[in-house]
Amino acid sequence: MKVTTCLAVLLSSSLSLAAAPATPAAKSANEFLKLFDSLYVGLIRVSQEAQWSASTDVSDAHEGERTAANTALAVFSGDKVVIDTCRALLAHRKELPPIVARELDKILLGAAEGPGTIPDVVKARVAAESRQSSTMDGFTYKLDGKPVTANDIDDILQKSTDLELRKRAWEASKQIGAPLKAGLATLQTLRNQVARELKHADYFALQVADYDMTDAEMMTMLDGFLADARPMFLKMHAWVREKLAARYKQPVPKLIPAHWINNRWSQEWLGVAEGSVDLDPLFKDKKPEWIVQSAERFWVSLGFPPLPKTFWERSDMYPVAAGSKRKKNSHASCWHIDLNEDIRSLMSVKNNGWWFRTAHHELGHAYYFMSYSRPEVPPMLRQGANRAMHEAMGDLAAIAASQPSYLKAVGVLPESTKIDERANLLNEALDAAIPFMGWSAGTMAHWEHDVYAKDLPPAEWQKRWWEYVAKYQGVAPPSDRSQLPDACDACTKTHINDLPAQYYNYSLSTVIKYQLHDHICRKILKQDPHSCNYFGHKEVGDFLRSIMKQGATRPWRVVLKEATGEPLSTRAMLDYFAPLNAWFDEQLKGKTIGW
Ligand code: X8Z
Ligand code: ZN
Known about the structure:
Blueprint: H1 6-14, H2 24-56, H3 60-77, H4 80-90, H5 98-111, H6 119-137, E1 141-143, E2 146-148, H7 150-159, H8 163-173, H9 177-197, H10 203-208, H11 215-247, E3 256-257, H12 288-301, H13 309-314, E4 333-336, E5 343-346, H14 353-372, H15 387-402, H16 404-409, H17 421-432, H18 434-453, H19 461-473, E6 475-476, H20 494-498, H21 504-524, H22 538-548, H23 556-564, H24 571-577, H25 579-587
Parallel strand pairs: 3-6
Antiparallel strand pairs: 1-2, 4-5
Helix pairs in contact: 1-2, 2-3, 2-4, 3-6, 4-5, 6-9, 7-8, 11-18, 11-25, 12-14, 14-15, 15-21, 18-19, 18-21, 21-24
The structure holds L-captopril (X8Z) and zinc ion.
């Protein structure tokens, strides 16, 4: 085969290979990848470091450094030579080892994020992304005129029964939307321009391409999840609105007012199921550090190594001290700084049940990073089998961390505590699965799809958002927000700004986590999935590691089928919650379902 780019000529003349490749195409690809990987890893590290500083200490200087580092990365990743070389090599796909073709595919997807053929657009996009993150991370919420943190707002929504205060706190949580709206409008155009340059239909389609799917296929799949979960969701919705109306002494509404629910976006419906284990009091005397250490103990008990020393030295996991001027991103995340050993987490951990689960989730990412950081997995494939699989590992640890048998085993829950299994199952469905499908596969996926694939004008964003919240989540704002000219309630969600067109990752991960859980409990531990404790079981760790260590070297559908014996399916999730059906039917006799 003949590759005519100057980079390839330079490469073939200057590099030698350790092992003779089977075909000329493979030889050229190896030479190209050797140089590409070395430059890419260097640039990614610098870009991640700059992003880390900008996210943990918001300042103009850090924003400037992030923009500079990300521009350098984009210029390299999207260089025309890189694009032409990958395309030329992929024209000989059949002559390439599959892992090499996968690497080249991933490089092309990365290039499509910033094609060198439109440098001004790419530069503008990188700067606009950086600005948007700084605006978001540097924002201060105000409640009754006083500054409050996201944790403070969540505390009120999780604990207060004062409906007026709840409404003010919920409205305060929407303040951040207006300053982000103009930036998102700019990014809507720039992201689509960038994606369309390399012939992706739009930015949403570009993100979905990472799953080897078209956006139509993805939307059909998500609509399938929604249809599968809908019968239970409708029952759950009818039951919850009665419960909350009684709690707040209000008439039973058709749509549930958003400030009645314990989460800023009604994505998780926590604290409705009475009689379920209330975790918060159990952590009252614990330090936030203990929460993260417990999450590490969970993973170590499965046979994973302790986290690297640098994780503890470099992570930023606790709220900024009161009175400090420093501002940091308030959303939990885990970072693979150098695609090798430098792993860090950014959180604002407090000693409550929500952060206990979230810490387990974040360390799931950390252990996935550690498992595929090995010489057999090239840098471009140091990713999850797909992005959802990465989230699923975290989510799996989060459900495992909520199981009473685990909480008893690690001494959080007194041995003598009586467990109301039905209440716990209901609580889990409300918190981690069924309403979450309406939010993730419904509102979030459809709204972002409209924004990118249908170029929905910013003037229509707010109205469309609340139409979807009503349709998919059965929720309404406390007062009409669809006509507020400056508001952007969608923009209040972190991912809309800095992980755009990817939220369906969490819908898939919800489905996958129950498939993995079902397999682990039934096939490996021979336990009932409703009461199943992974803690201390190395065979569970071996199973998870067998998936994680592959990174993205093989197609995700193959990896999932091999691991669980089943293709992607809502079966396990629906089976898991099936015991609630009869109970709901009993509770809802004579009541109206739906809205
Ligand atoms: O963003 C997250 C993780 C990031 S690693 C904490 N999650 C989604 C969200 O908060 O909206 C986990 C569940 C859904
Ligand atoms: Zn995550």
